[in-house]
Amino acid sequence: MHKEKKIERPKLIIGLVIDQMRWDFLYRYYDHYGNGGFKRLMHHGYNCQHTMIDYLPANTGPGHTCIYTGSVPSIHGIAGNDFYDVIDRRSRYCVADSTVHQVDDSNNGPSFSPRNLLATTVTDELKLATNMRSKVFGIAIKDRGGILPAGHLANAAYWYNDKKGTFTTSTYYADRSPEWLKAFNNRKVADSFTKQNWNLLYPEKDYYQSTQDAVSNYEKGFPGEKTPSFPHITDTLADTDRHSILKSMPQGNDMTLAMAKACIEGEQLGQRGESDFLCVSLSSTDYLGHQFGPNSMETEDMYLRLDQSIAAFLNYLDNAIGKGQYLLFLTADHGVAHNANFLLDNDVPAGIPSPYTLGNLNDYLAGIYKQNKIVDTILNYQLYLNKPLIATANLDIEKIKGSIRDWCNKKPQATSIAYVVDMEHMDRSPLPEPIYTLVVNGYNRLRSGDMEIIMNPGWYDYGGKQTGTTHGTWNPYDTHIPLIWYGWHVPKGETDATVHMTDIAPTVAALLHIQMPNGCIGKVIPFEQNENNNKSRD
Ligand code: ZN
Ligand code: ZN
Fold first, then answer.
1. Domains in the chain with CATH codes
2. Which of 61, 98, 195, 350 could crosslink 94 through cysteines, CB 3.0-4.6 Å?
């Protein structure tokens, strides 16, 4: 039919998202990484050293969405893991969909889909570009980590059912599981992984990047444990507990990668004469990180094991798809803060505020305006005003905003707050860059709050919990993420130029010669062919 050569594309594109991986983890544990995992990607791929998240909140749902849409919550609509629907006045989980059910499940309750996502993903654009011949799959322990990357046109997204220890999907994609998935689930991978207890990979003295295990009071152990220390025993637990704990263990990453291989084999990805796309997100790094924090031996050990798992996965891809035949990018959906008590104990300003109780704020406002529940909810550091009540009671919304500022200026909340932002009057909030841009990009008119609280550095709201940690703020520890390109048409090199999470999708689109996603605001990252373009500069 056509004489011209077919357009060149990689056989398989793999997006590998490490949930909660800070950029500095590439170097924090560098000395103990082997040559085949992170270092193989860093030394043989293209390393974008300064990749920043360009919106708020820095959470999982928005992060995975931004990576694959090249867009921000203002446009793509995933304004949080949960966001508040301003019109319906109710909270919504980012991938909740009451019109679909879990496949092969008799209880038939509501399940998950990408329907809350308002823009296309780069995976959608690949499907459109090849008239749907490309196959696209999303795989993660977290439903949102698989669903949002794979987009609207995905063949399927698969996530983990922690009651059963199996992977599942919803009727949005198909009415039943494919045979290869049934076979994978029958292997009972979750069971065999949790029958191995979790002990340190190396002698304890090698973990010099972490707080000593037994004396740490910044961590919370697993259910049933007296102290949060090694070894973590799982083989004696009840099945449902083991299936759940697996999410927070290194074996959770291995189970996810085993599932990715089963999908490649079951669907013949990259072996059909079309470019296919596999979106893999490793969720266990986030579950564990929340519980133990970045200064724990648990986190260090998980990354050392993950390094080995990535090495094995790359070797697998070399054999199954072919060296240089696949394009892979490794990134993260967000980073994480240090545990605030750890920082305080070391004289670094930080804090965990007593939770911003809605009750206290509403009582304060009721004292002034004689109306209860003026604020509907506080979510993602955003305050949603009860607009119907404000209209009915004929209250002055600008005056109320002023009163909320006054409340934020009172102790105890005042000590933790840097700014109180009026989302529709950004000019009244003199925010320095890049916070200004992050707030604007994160503001979705129908899904974000009317005012946003920006905390002081080192502070975070984690429901008042003293152990563990969280993420979500504008600060570099939450927003500076790794980004490494590897494989098909990727030169060796690195750049110190600041790029953004929104640049990932248009860069993939450019490499594949397909249209950018329809809400994309990012720029294509130029790969400069150099070994190390910053080191010779003086
Ligand atoms: Zn996450
Ligand atoms: Zn998280």
1. 12-343+476-537 (3.40.720.10), 358-455 (3.30.1360.150)
2. 61
